[in-house]
Amino acid sequence: MSVSDPIADMLTRIRNAAKARLDSVAMPTSVMKSEIAKIMLQEGYISSYEVIDGETAGGILKIHLRYSKDKTGVIEGLKRISKPGLRVYSEKTKIPRILGGMGTIIITTSKGVMTGKKAKELGIGGEVICYIW
Question: pTM score > 0.85 for this model?
């Protein structure tokens, strides 16, 4: 089955798995999905991730979700911003903040995929992929 927006599919799978309190979720992998998972790991939203059967197309990306001690999910929300039908770009001075800086923005720039905070530090803008809080 062909998916028109693989990033939105990834975020939806993670959101649904977190609501169902599953330990992990698997999906087809891509370089962009692996980079997003890497940022989610660095920011503490997931406990780990692994790529099975290859590093890019044809492989499986398995994300292990993280929960607090009272069994509530660390990820409260995920929102896809830039979509295939409507790309959303942000200048270096206008990168938004989520929940007063408590959330994370994932942005793709000419220097790669990174958080909005890091893009501000480097002084570069780019395409806003999603918000995580």
Answer: yes
